[in-house]
Amino acid sequence: MDLTEFKRSLDGTAPPRLAAPLRALWFVAKGDWDKAHALVMDGSGADAAWVHAYLHRVEGDLDNARYWYRQAKRTPAVGKLETEWDEIVAALSAPKQPG
After folding, report:
1. 3-class DSSP assignment, residue 76
2. CA angle 33–39–41, rounded 5-degree value
3. Within a domain: residue 41?
4. pLDDT by position in tens, the chain (length 99)
5. How many structural domains are present in the chain?
6. By residue range, what is the domain housing residue 38?
C-alpha cells in the first residue's frame, strides 16, 4: 500500500490491516488521537517510536516528542505536521529491502 492508497483508505470506517504504527497514523488522520496513541504507547521499535513522537508533536507536547524522536533515532521534525505524516506513511508503507 503506497501513500495514495493509504490516503484513500481514510474514506473507510476501519483501517486497513497494517502494522500498529500505520494504523495509528490512520486513526490520528481520522481525528482519534487517543486510539492512535494507544496503538504505539507500548510498542517497541523505531517505527512505533517515530509515530509516538509525531503524535506528541500533534498534541503540542514537544518535550515528550523530542524524547520519542531520540528513541526512534530521528531528528525532531519542525515542518508542517501534514508533511511529516506523509513522510512517515510513505516510509512505513514502502516495501522492506532484504537485509
Report:
1. coil
2. 90
3. yes
4. 899 999 999 999 999 999 999 999 999 999 999 999 999 998 889 999 999 999 999 999 999 999 999 999 999 999 999 999 999 999 999 877 665
5. 1
6. 3-8+21-93
Distances (CA, A) of 19 to 31, 40, 56: 19, 10, 19
Strand, coil or helix: 11: coil
38 is a domain residue: yes
Handedness of CA 95, 42, 17, 22 (dihedral sign): negative
* 28 touches 36 (CB < 8 A): yes
Residue with cell string 525532531: 76
The reply to whether 79 falls in a domain is yes
Q: What nine digits make up the cell of 35?
A: 486510539
Question: Is 71 part of a structural domain of the chain?
Answer: yes
